[in-house]
User: What shape does this take?
Amino acid sequence: MDELRTHERTQDAVLRALKAAADGIRLRILRVLAEGPFHVAELTEILGAGQSSVSRHLRILADAELVQVRRVGTWSWYSLREGTDEGAPAARVLSILSALPGLNGDADAVDRVLAKRRHATSEFFRRTAPVWDTVRERHLGPAEHLEPLLDAIGRGRVVADLGTGTGVLLARLASTFDQVIGIDASPEMLEEARRRLEDTGAEPAELRLGRLEHLPLADGEADVMVANLVLHHVADPAGVLREIRRGLASRGRLVIADLEEYADDSLRAALGAQWPGFRPADVTTWLRAAGFTPRRSERITRSNGAEPGPAIHLWEAIAR
Ligand SMILES: C[S@@+](CC[C@H](N)C(=O)[O-])C[C@H]1O[C@@H](n2cnc3c(N)ncnc32)[C@H](O)[C@@H]1O
Assistant: This one.
């Protein structure tokens, strides 16, 4: 009897998800969201539809558990539903939809929206590069998390510091790795990193200009990667973790330090961030989906010195 009821409930949920997806605009929305999270104003721009119509379609998709929403300040960001187990009705419908052709006519509009976001981040770091260390300290307090982070990174052969910024970690990593690669999308930040390496007389690290979304690394080139306070700047953290997995050797390690979710939207703006930190369980879900086995997830500062500033969390994962 119970089995019959479960079967009926699953069938109802599948039907609801299929009905929700059976609409031209909603199908386009699902395909766009397969590229990563977007907020309503961006979806409106991409689809060329009115905001109230887009919001109504999003509500239908959210009710059918095909999409999820995350509120950040005044924005509501939508993404494909994740974290449900693979057998869940909505996950099954999404996997059927993923077999359909890609973005078609929406591809150019998606590219334009993503280019605007990249431009905003690169402008922020172009302006703040010369004073970034002071800005970070003002908003996040002294970088107390660096010692536990370096302990977690440990030693190895080739390490890549993703979003290296002014290169605070590079000189320290040079003593425990044969090769150190610092990667950043901002030429101005890399210039600060180069100057810091020169000033400290540290072993030279290789500085590469590039984005986390398309890492300037060959497949499996690094055996350790570090992402220190950078993931909250990328539009699609789950997608970036898949790209990181590509650049890591099998059984390679990834160590992430980032802010735990905070409510203060003015802090997010002051840090030039896309995301107001993360819920630790979300990052762990993304790591699993990207081909990692999570090994550690713990808070490494109470409040990072800035009361009531956000805590810094550390995740460590092994590439499967
Ligand atoms: C908050 S700073 C952190 C720098 C350094 N890891 C630290 O903790 O001091 C973030 C850095 O990530 C870089 N960044 C942001 N988005 C990026 C992306 N998509 N790809 C590569 N670098 C990015 C920025 O240019 C900036 O230098």
